Structures are given as C-alpha cells and as structure tokens.
Amino acid sequence: VTVKVGDLVVFESDVPESQRFWTGEYVKTGIVVAELLGDSNGTAVSVLWGSGELTERCPTWMLETFNEKR
Question: Which of 69, 33, 68, 70 is nearest to 50 (CA)?
C-alpha cells in the first residue's frame, strides 16, 4: 500500500461488528500527516483521525486509502 501525506485513509478493526461497542474498536477515518522511514515492520505514517486523536506510527498495511492526494 502506497500512502502519502494528504491521503484520506480508513482503519477498520478486525473485531466483529457485534462486539465493537464493548471493545471500543470501530472504523476510523483520518488524514495522513507525515510519512515515516520504514523499519523492520515495514512503512509507517502518522495519522490524524477524525476524532482528533493522533497516531504517530501507524503501519501502512493496516490502512486503506480511499481518496489519494493528487
């Protein structure tokens, strides 16, 4: 997955939908605010989520791009 600064991304928990309320896991949407250097776990980015939460190191394999920056 190629993810760039400015891309809108989605993270969907692998917790079954029927259990998400109890676990706090849900679908999140956000914007990539920084690209980070790859490490042994692959490429990561910083994501600002719609809730205002910032994840400073989110592996790109966990994200789906739905509106790439052109």
Answer: 33
- Which residues, listed in sequence order, are joined to residue 46 by a DSSP beta bridge? 34
68 pLDDT higher than 80: no
Q: Which of 30, 20, 24, 34 is nearest to 51 (CA)?
A: 30
- Distance between CA atoms of 29 and 23, rounded to whole angstroms? 18
Q: What is the pTM of this model?
A: 0.72
The DSSP string of 35-52 is EEEEETTEEEEEEEETTS
* Among 49, 48, 47, 68, CA closest to 59: 47
CA distance 19 to 22: 6
Q: How confident is the model at residue 34 (pLDDT cuts 50, 70, 90)?
A: very high
